[in-house]
Design a protein that fits this description.
Elements (H helix, E strand, L loop, with lengths): L13 E3 L8 E3 L8 E2 L31 E3 L3 E2 L5 E7 L16 E5 L4 E5 L7 E10 L7 E8 L4 E7 L5 E6 L1 E5 L2 E4 L6 E7 L3 E3 L11 E5 L4 E4 L5 E6 L5 E8 L3 E3 L3 E4 L2 E8 L2 E8 L8 H14 L8 E7 L10 E4 L3 E5 L10 H9 L11 H17 L5 H9 L21 H20 L6 H8 L8 H12 L1 H12 L9 H8 L6 E4 L9 E4 L6 E2 L6 E4 L2 E11 L5 E9 L2 E10 L4 E10 L3 E7 L2 E8 L2 E2 L1 E8 L2 E4 L2 E10 L5 E9 L2 E10 L3 E10 L4 E8 L4 E12 L8 H5 L3 H30 L1
Parallel strand pairs: 9-20, 24-25, 25-27, 31-37, 38-42, 40-46
Antiparallel strand pairs: 1-2, 3-16, 4-6, 5-6, 6-19, 7-8, 8-20, 9-10, 10-15, 11-14, 11-19, 12-15, 13-14, 16-17, 17-18, 18-22, 21-22, 23-24, 26-27, 28-32, 29-30, 29-32, 32-35, 33-34, 33-36, 36-37, 39-41, 41-44, 42-43, 42-45, 45-46
Helix pairs in contact: 1-2, 2-3, 3-4, 3-5, 5-8, 6-7, 7-8
GO molecular function: aminopeptidase activity
InterPro entries: Ig-like_fold (IPR013783), Peptidase_M4/M1_CTD_sf (IPR027268)
Protein name: Glycyl aminopeptidase
Amino acid sequence: MLVVPRRVVAVGLVVLLLGGGIASLPVAATADHGAVTDADNGTAAGVGENCTYRVDTAPNQSDPTVETVQSSADTTEANGSTVRTRSADVHRRQPRGKGGDIASTAASMETETATSGATQTGDGDVIRQTQTYARVPEQPGEVAVTLTYEVPDRVVDLEAHVPAAATVTETDGFERVNGSVYEWDETSGPATISYRINPNQTIQKSGPEGADGRYLSVDTGEWALLTRSLTPTRWRYTGQDPVKYNRTLRTAGPGAAGEEIVYLGDVATFEESAHNQTFTLAVPERATMTASPISVLDSMANASNALRVGDRDEQVFVVAAPSGAVNWGVEGYQIGDADMWVQSRQSLDTANNVWLHEYVHSRQAYETTAETRWTVEGWATYYAAVLTLEQNRIGFDEFRAQLAAGEQPVYSDVTLADRSSWTNDANYWKGALVAGRTDVHIRSATGRNQTLQRVFQSLNGYRDPVTQSQLLTEIEAVSGPSVRDATATETETTATVAMWNKTTHQRLFGAIPARIGYSLPPVDRADAYRADSLYRSDAPVGGSEPIRLAANETLAVNAVVENAGGEAGMYNLTLAVNETVVATKQGQIEPGVRTEVELTHTFTEPGRYVVSVDGDTATVIVSEPAAASVTDVAVSPREVRQGDRVDVTATVVNDNDIPGTATAEFRRNDVVFAEQRLYLSPQATTTVTRTVTLDEPGTVSLSAGDGRTTTTVDVVVSTETAAPTSTPTPTEMSTDRQTTAEEGDGFTALMTGLAVLLAALIARQRGS
């Protein structure tokens, strides 16, 4: 990240020479570790602390100050009327608490265009400037800008300055004076200046938020992410009441705009309001988020509540810059009051939480001297880590490792109050550790009744840059002379600073809270994802991605819930489909426990879906069920008597990778006598049997089919009458073959008579 302070500093001033009697107007710039190149778009060029860049601009809050307004001495014209001179947009930011006759701002979002800017809230007339940004697809690396001025009647003249390297393409109601200065010709109706800029800015960066590339803003031809043009404006007016100045940013076509940052291209916007702040997150179509948009907004809203340091801007505007699309020079970039972008693949679950780091910068309203400059990055790094710990997104070990980096020997010769001694981004690493140690000292000295936040809040009330003496005075006022002395030693000398342990943290910050995390099981665990439907029951469907289901199947997921914190806590587990929550479960989980909780959702419509649990995702493809097929028919018996019953068996096969269905139709001489709807799991085979009575003699065609193919078998029916079809009695069962049963009874009587006759003959023969 790269920081440019909110007030003009004495280092590295860039001077804009304004025509028409306006004094030279400085644009803030500092020179720390790298230079910003901004030759074409007129953005305040400068460099700041390592990798944090924040050029300061108009506040977006109830404070009416939006931009710097410089007033010249009143003059009297020949006719006796009093004429006053004012100017605006000569710096990126006017410090808090300073005056300035500017209308306050209110951001809004539209479907096809984006607008963010000022609305009149005070008395008097208002000069309304609208900056409209548009892509120039045929010229990648160029963005078209149109300045539109609506000028009230009391304004007697007005001068507008466009960026020095801009190419002016058209004017209406303005005449060029010299260089990049244009004078209003006092015509009625809106006056415009159209020009083109090269939005590409680069940086030579360092610091923990540094990235591998160099870009701070860019136009790719397909989309653009840039900061607005600085357009110094001077006007003279009559009357006692001031004529105010209102600036609005818009996009021509799809996009999103804050107070300072503009994104041009297809984008989705998400919004959350909490603690008197409205957070707007713009997610470009080109961006792939690691954390869900909802979780990013929730995290910032939680940080807003946790940071009781004042300076809450009404509007916070964040763009998820597409990671990997260009070679970004930083991981995050904060500009103005509360505009920022963060690379879309940045995680929330890390001690180096860039989302919160940039948000903390938006809460730093105070200006610094060289001695206190370390607090800008040191405090932001510390609070990003401690807020992430308090949000249960990291454990104490990761938090400790982040701050303990400031103990490294490379910082043994660093004095934070002496910028010339900084090496290896000492203001980030040693600065964060000293910030944390100061917080520990204050909590210990006050019995946990006061914290570093009280000092932070006091500094935000300063009008002038905070000196080392003032910083120490505020610390003493909160916690006493001993803490002042300790902080003086840790910032004004090379004294070694040590990280505190978990026991001390629990004593001073409270017990390590329940840190409950949620995740999806690995997709290659087949049984962790199961389907339930008419086709299959609790069947494993994991193993590979995407998971394939048929419409109206219910997916059951064994989501993982883990408490890595120090106390028991309640979990609130949610399953989202395409970022819409579809299932929730709550419960309590003890510290150190990891468990699985089943969540389910029924997919009624075909499509491609992304299921997610706390940022973990898996892809599910839902299709219409496959068409199963009747592949074979068996008939038994094949030869029967008139009136006999025959079994017809159809074999049904689903050889697809998704569930399938078929309606098996059974026909006798092409007339349906039975049908059965079948539901089959993938790669499954089943059979279904139906019985039919054949009453007519001759050859009968029996078949089964699925509506596409039919298999037929012929059966021969003889004219011999079949046995009755009523349920047989036990006697009938034993005489199943009726003819055989009758012959058996007569044969028994005959044999008995023959036996008697034979016995008489034998007896007679013996007697003779």
